[in-house]
Amino acid sequence: MRDSDLVSECVATHDADAALIERVLETLTEGNLLSDGRFVDEFVRSRIARGRGPLRIRADLEGRGIADEVIDAALTHPASFWLERLHVVREKKFGSTVPADRADWGRQARFLAQRGFPADLIYRSLDAAE
Fold it and tell me: In terms of domains, do 55 and 97 share one?
């Protein structure tokens, strides 16, 4: 959900005039006090800190109605950045030990995929660990 939609929904519950809400939102947007770009930047930063990958972050933003262009601009990190983040998330969950067998490899791969990391990075990371 976009910032302006969220504010509109919140204010509308208090029986405010729709025209007034629209004017206030327009003023906030013009003053750059209500910005989808700022929201997306902060959202991406917080999700990266929580150990989420680019696929999960993109899906979460799309679910909130953010435009693809804004999402693309926010997720411009190179593959090496995401690979480093993947290593951090993997080590936090499983430690520095390598997968002992294919079952363990699969368990780690599924965990990382659920976190939103692309398959090619997961394969690269886990195959290099073996």
Answer: no
Other CB atoms closer than 10 Å to residue 103's CB: what's the count?
A: 9
DSSP letter string over 67-106?
-HHHHHHH----HHHHHHHHHHHHHHHH-SPPP-SHHHHH
Q: What is the pLDDT of residues 28-74, one digit of tens each?
A: 777 777 777 888 999 999 999 999 999 999 999 999 889 899 999 99
The whole-number pLDDT of residue 2 equals 58
From CA 80, how far away is CA 66, in angstroms rounded? 25
Domain count, the chain: 3
Residues 90 and 117 in one domain: yes
Instruction: Convert the pLDDT of each residue in 91-129 to its tens digit.
Output: 999 998 889 899 999 999 999 999 999 999 999 999 876
Tell me the three state secondary structure of residue 18. Answer: helix
What is residue 99's DSSP assignment? P
What the block records as the tokens of 56 is 């999960």
Instruction: Please check whether residues 58 and 88 belong to one and the same domain.
Output: no
Q: Report how far residue 114's alpha carbon sits from residue 97's, in angstroms, rounded to the nearest whole number.
A: 20
**Residue 72: CATH number of its domain:** 1.10.10.10
